[in-house]
Amino acid sequence: MSLHTQYLESFLRSQFYMLRMDGPLPLPYRHYIAIMKLVKTGENNWSLPELVHAVVLLAHYHALASFVFGSGINPERDPEISNGFRLISVNNFCVCDLANDNNIENASLSGSNFGIVDSLSELEALMERMKRLQEEREDEEASQEEMSTRFEKEKKESLFVVSGDTFHSFPYSEFEDDMIITSDVSRYIEDPGFGYEDFARRGEEHLPTFRAQDYTWENHGFSLVNRLYSDIGHLLDEKFRMVYNLTYNTMATHEDVDTTMLRRALFNYVHCMFGIRYDDYDYGEVNQLLERSLKVYIKTVTCYPERTTKRMYDSYWRQFKHSEKVHVNLLLMEARMQAELLYALRAITRHLT
């Protein structure tokens, strides 16, 4: 995160406030929730402020797991090492080098990972699509009916991006050797099978949709959180805005590039996977801007972070610097957190009314 210092400051402020400052939950509760990342027992009756505090902590650490695994900050088990863990090393680079942007893009390019299309051509093609979409948007806007159809198509397709341990974009054997064995956290979990489930079953004709305009963070979630857990709303809002607007106007070797379209596509695709739709957004842009390998990476990092591999990380936008991919991970993390908060806070709002 130190590659993006403005965001890091905002992140640390909000995390410190959740864990250390005055709040509804006692300090030990906060850290236990952070460790286990789920509250399933429900043995005690919680007040609404305590519940909101717990929900914010859960959403924060669920999302943080995506960033940690997506950025390669996870140790691999190694029986030959005395403590059982070692840092992941790929193409002679160690994850400790990644934080310094140690020419990791060259490491990605040196392997044969997914070298079907030359990475430079990939980059140029992406920029050309961005330019074409901008021109089309200026010439003629899609109708509401067409935008709704495109969202439904993207939502259904997102259900098929990842299934269990199978990555549909690539043969399973490509990833078999890369699967990461996670550390044993069973002591904190009552139900080891409890985890992410798609918001709808495959094959269902009418998939549920959460219309963002009916319950937004800005108009609804923010005020509820701030009312029941003072000031955290301001800190979260600052963090969301920071990551959404963060830009250096660069794409790999290109400068003076407006990346707004790309950042919005990444953020909205995560929400689309959770069934959240923005009426004013054309989801045809997602299909144009996010290649299949990137969608696999996003779905895995967002929903099954422990399955993320370095090969997946290398498979998309191979010409981009590591710092730019960390920027992608920050967007995915905050979009995932906001999606979880929207569902939870909407449920609490309904309970109150």
From TrEMBL:
GO annotation (BP), single: negative regulation of TORC1 signaling
SUPFAM superfamilies reported for this sequence: AhpD-like
TM regions (residue ranges): none
Pfam families in the record: PA26
Coiled coil segments of this chain: 116-150
GO cellular component, one term: nucleus
Family: Belongs to the sestrin family.
Entry protein name: Sestrin 3
Record lineage: Eukaryota, Metazoa, Chordata, Craniata, Vertebrata
